[in-house]
Amino acid sequence: MRKIVVYELLSLDGVAEDPDAFIVDWDDAMDAELGAVIAPQDAVILGRRSYDEWSRFWPTSTIEPFATFINGVAKHVVTSSPLDGNWANASAVTGDPVEFARRLKAGEGGDIGVHASISVARALLAGGVVDELRLVIAPRIAGSGRRLLDGLPPMRLTTVRNLTSATGHLLVDYRVEH
Q1: Which helix (H) or strand (E) holds 120?
Q2: Entry pTM
Q3: Is the confidence at residue 6, as pLDDT, over 80?
Q4: pLDDT at 5 over 80
């Protein structure tokens, strides 16, 4: 069975919205972490807001390794309206994202990533379908913005790995216990 892996950039106070405001010193350890996260993924689930923003940015980006990955991977976009534009390998997902994720997870293939897409990540965590939560936590307090973990039910996580990057970011990988 495939794994669903949520990868998020957070401020120390848990804000996930607009990570460019608090992730200002990207380093080699963070690059290695991102590479390790995306290497086994052959599909991603995105929210509509992330899709709309990313479909304007990533097709012409040269920021590697993510540009090549996100432009080529199968993108399943949770939305209630048709997708605009023609970003390669993107398809609309209507209906319950948790049920869709369960079906996708039961199929053949590699890991399934959830990148950015705060609402989708929350829904999948609350729905019990996420297997790993991989966080990059900046040594900054954002003060305001949407937080990743707000409104979630209690859940048990097991720390799989943690390290501090050269620029002080915490790289923490959790297994979600079901």
Answers
A1: helix 118-126
A2: 0.96
A3: yes
A4: yes
